[in-house]
Design brief:
Layout lengths: L2 H15 L4 E12 L10 E7 L2 E7 L4 E4 L17 H11 L12 E12 L5 E12 L2 E7 L4 E4 L5 H8 L2 H24 L5 E8 L6 E11 L5 E6 L2 E2 L4 E2 L3 E2 L5 E10 L6 E7 L2 E6 L7 H30 L7 H10 L8
Antiparallel strand pairs: 1-2, 1-5, 2-3, 3-4, 5-6, 6-7, 7-8, 9-10, 10-15, 11-12, 11-16, 13-15, 14-15, 16-17
C-alpha cells in the first residue's frame, strides 16, 4: 500500500471518529500550612474540581464547603470527603513536630483525592482510576495503591504513617467505598447532562468536477463531546475526504461534520449514523442541494461562533486572573505569598 495513501486514510478515520475516548475526573485538593509568628494567610484550604472546573471550595471563615450554585445538579450525585479540617491540621502538626502553641518553621501538607473515568462513544467504560496521594513540604510523601488498597511510602518520614494506615481497616474500607462511589457519580452525572445531537445532511456541487457532489453530515448541539460518525450508501460505509473533528459551540455543546464525494446521479440510500452516549442516531439524505449562499452563510455563522467563543474565553480568563473567581484564585495567591521559594504547590 502506498504510504501516503495509508496516512490519508488513517487521519480521515481518526477525524471521523471525533474523539476516541473522553476522560472525566472529580478531584479534591487540600493544602494545610503551619503558621509561624508573623506569617499571615490561610492555614487550610480545599477545592473541588470537576473536569478542571472549580465547583466547590472550603471557607475558613464559615468552616464549611461553599458549593457553586450553578452546578447544583452534580451535588445530587457527589459529596465532599468526610475528613475534617482539624484532621488535616493535626496530621501536619504531627509530621512537623509542632505543639499546640509553637511550630518551628513553615511546613506544608497537600492531598489530592478523586477519580478518573475514560469512556468510549458507546458509553462503555474503557478505564477507571482512583487515587489518594499526599505531599509534604513540596515532595511526594505517601499514596494509595487503589488496586491493592495498600499505602506506598515515598519518603523515609512516611514509613510510620504507612504502617499505621495499612493497619486501619475502617479507614481503608471507608476510603475504598468513597472512591468507588466517586466513579459511579461521574457516570451518573454525565448521563444526567447528556444532550443528543441534531443531524442534518446536505449536498453541494463539487468545485472541480461537475459530475460529483459533496455530501455532508452535520451533527450539532450534543454534549458531552465524545462522538463517532459515519456516512453510508446502502449500509456500506463511505470514506470521508473531509472531517472537521469535534468543535465547540458557543452554548457549551459541540458540533462535528464529515463529507464524502458522491456521483451526482446517485441520490438514494445515503444515511448518516452517529454514536453518542451509548445511543445511535440516524438520518437519511432527502436529496436536497445546498445553495452557495447557504454554504457561505454557514461558514460565516461558524466563524462568528468561533469569535464569540474566543471572546467569552478571554472574558472568563480575565475574570479569573483579576480575582473575581470565588473558588480558588485568591487562596492560591495567598499560598504562593507565604510558601518559601523553592517549595511547590502540587
Amino acid at each position: 500500500m502506498d504510504l501516503k495513501f495509508f496516512f490519508i486514510v488513517l487521519f480521515a478515520y481518526i477525524g471521523l471518529r471525533g474523539v476516541y475516548s473522553e476522560r472525566h475526573h472529580l478531584l479534591f485538593v487540600y493544602t494545610v500550612l503551619t503558621k509561624p509568628d508573623g506569617v499571615s494567610g490561610p492555614v487550610f484550604s480545599a477545592v473541588c474540581l470537576y473536569d478542571d472546573r472549580c465547583i466547590s471550595h472550603y471557607s475558613n471563615e464559615e468552616q464549611t464547603w461553599n458549593r457553586d450554585r450553578f452546578d447544583a445538579e452534580i451535588w445530587r450525585y457527589t459529596r465532599e470527603p468526610d475528613d475534617s479540617r482539624d484532621w488535616f491540621i493535626n496530621l501536619l502538626n504531627t509530621l512537623a513536630n509542632c505543639t499546640s502553641s509553637r511550630c518551628d518553621g513553615l511546613h506544608t501538607l497537600q492531598r489530592r483525592v478523586g477519580c478518573e473515568v475514560d469512556k468510549h462513544p458507546d458509553d462503555a467504560v474503557m478505564n477507571v482510576n482512583a487515587f489518594d496521594e499526599y505531599g509534604y513540604d513540596g515532595e511526594d510523601f505517601i499514596f494509595l495503591n487503589y488496586y491493592t488498597m495498600q499505602w506506598i511510602d515515598k519518603s523515609p518520614k512516611a514509613k510510620e504513617t504507612k504502617t499505621k494506615w495499612d493497619s486501619d481497616r475502617v479507614l481503608n474500607d471507608h476510603l475504598q467505598l468513597y472512591l468507588n462511589d466517586c466513579m459511579d457519580w461521574i457516570s451518573t452525572y454525565n448521563a444526567s447532562i447528556s444532550t443528543p445531537p441534531a443531524l442534518h445532511m446536505f449536498a453541494s456541487a463539487a468545485p472541480h468536477d461537475q459530475s460529483e457532489l459533496n455530501l455532508t453530515c452535520l451533527a450539532t448541539g450534543f454534549s458531552p463531546k465524545l462522538i463517532e460518525m459515519k456516512i453510508t450508501l446502502n449500509n456500506i460505509t463511505l470514506q470521508p475526504f473531509s472531517s472537521s473533528g469535534v468543535r465547540p459551540n458557543v452554548n457549551q455543546t459541540f458540533q462535528m461534520r464529515a463529507s464524502v464525494k458522491i456521483h451526482r446521479d446517485e441520490k438514494q440510500g445515503y444515511e448518516c449514523h452517529v454514536l453518542h452516549s451509548g445511543q445511535t442516531f440516524t438520518t437519511t439524505w432527502d436529496r436536497s442541494l445546498e445553495s452557495r449562499s447557504h454554504h457561505w452563510a454557514a461558514v460565516a455563522a461558524g466563524a462568528l461562533a468561533t469569535v464569540v467563543l474566543c471572546i467569552m474565553s478571554l472574558i472568563y480568563k480575565k475574570r479569573s486572573f483579576s480575582g473575581q473567581s470565588d473558588c480558588s484564585s485568591s487562596t492560591t495567591e495567598q499560598l504562593e505569598n507565604i510558601i518559601p521559594q523553592g517549595q511547590q504547590i502540587l
